[in-house]
Fold this sequence. Notes:
- There is one protein chain.
- 33% of the residues lie in helices and 21% in strands.
- By secondary structure, the protein is an alpha/beta fold.
- Strands 2-3-1-4-5-6 form a 6-stranded mixed sheet, with helices on both faces.
- Strand 4 (85-91), helix 3 and strand 5 (114-119) form a beta-alpha-beta unit.
- The longest helix is centred in the first third of the chain and has 16 residues, at 67-82.
- The radius of gyration is 26 Å and the shape is elongated.
- The chain starts with a strand and ends with a strand.
Amino acid sequence: MSRIVAIVGRPNVGKSTLFNRLVGRREAIVDDLSGVTRDRHYGTSEWCDEAFTVIDTGGYVTQSEDQFEAAIRKQVHLAIEEADILLFVVDVTTGITDLDQSLANMLRRHKKPLLVVANKVDHGERLPASSEFYAFGLGEVYPISSQTGSGTGELLDELIKHLPPATEPAPDLPKIALVGRPNVGKSTLLNALLGYERTIVTPIAGTTRDAVHTEYKGFGHHFVLTDTAGLRKKAKVHEDIEFYSVLRTLRVIEESDVILLLLDATQGIEAQDLQIFHLASKHRRGIVILVNKWDLVEKDHKTMKEFEKTIKERLAPFRDVPIVFISATDKQRIFQAVETAMNVHQARQAHIPTRQLNEVMGKVIEDYPPPAWKGKYIRIKYITQLRQVPPTFVFFCNLPQYIRDPYKRYLENKLRDHYKLSGVPVILLFREK
């Protein structure tokens, strides 16, 4: 199990900047506007050969009836429960506020190892002000600047002293990402699969801003599941925060093994869905399409078969992709969606023995050889699969330059039919023997 460090504090004290500093990359969105971080956000840090997980949380606000701030409070409490060590971040430029005092009282009750971090000590003149935070009675105060990194070494030296003993490292898990337009039900699906509220869900589009990673283990499967911010058309991306959310989602697509593309059954497949599909295809990710909110569709008017046909017509020529009709709120077929995603992942990793490949595809080529081009006959003599992901097949022939695209699609379709490569990107290379 991971050793977990949670960063907590009121809004705008620099929690996300410290998180980025600890994980060594700009994972969390940072903005002067308070309330930017909403969900718990995870990253991995290492210091003196000690690895641990860091959680960034939203700004803790009490006595607020705002829908988001109430949900953020809940997320902060969940992060505290998960954590082994707490970093209580305060702002040296403002001193102790009522919110700081309220949070300190709450943290004291949890009786977990806690380090008070006085942030924004960007120069020596601010150092004396950090002594004010000893008034909490929570022990040593660590003055740092998360912006410049000053003082973080001393903080980390102390932090690793409180880490519980390390356990076996986690395996190299498959990475599955939930992507789609805003408000198609990505976070609802994540919470339904996990059985608890991992991310904040509201009817307001754009609630999820960061990519939220969660380790999923159940029903014989073990993988990392990532919820992402909804991808809008560029023309509709107005806020800086939303722009960075989109960048995070694009990076998740690049780094994942399988993409679960959620569609809204009440709206059908739209231009933005196609953009996301082609983006995942361009990066050669495995793809499964989930048609969510199927419980809201009048089945007399749109049957599954008609809906599936419409989707595949819009995706042409990339038709070979699994489609699962689900309802995240009713948990309808959500585990079938997981099963399908893992099948795609396994097929993406599979290697076909060369002998078997030549026996099967040799017969396919014999039944329909490549058409002659410019009076020259093309003979494919040998096929092999390279040891790489996604599946890459090399066809050795006498005149590779004369093989046309329709025949390449024919060979790809036959490979997909014989080896169950639905939803898996396939690369064909033609070389002269």
